[in-house]
Amino acid sequence: MRAENASLKEKLKTHEELIRASQEDSRFLREQMTKLMEMVSQGHLHPPPPAST
After folding, report:
1. Which residues fall within 8 angstroms of residue 39, CB to CB, at 6 or more apart?
2. What keywords are annotated for this sequence in UniProt (predicted)?
3. For residue 44, what is the DSSP state?
4. How far is the C-alpha of 15 from the C-alpha of 26, rounded, in Å?
5. Cα(17)–Cα(26) distance, rounded to whole angstroms?
6. Predicted model pTM
7. CA 41, CA 9: separation in Å to the nearest integer?
């Protein structure tokens, strides 16, 4: 029983670390998207010209 508890605690710790890393990735992507949207709204970035067919 004790070994099972230790195994479960180790799995929980691993899951907590994965969740934390995922949250950090999500926050980073949100920040990047916000910066991109600000640049677009300020006219610093222009969409590429339409492809000529």
Report:
1. 45
2. Coiled coil
3. S
4. 16
5. 14
6. 0.60
7. 48
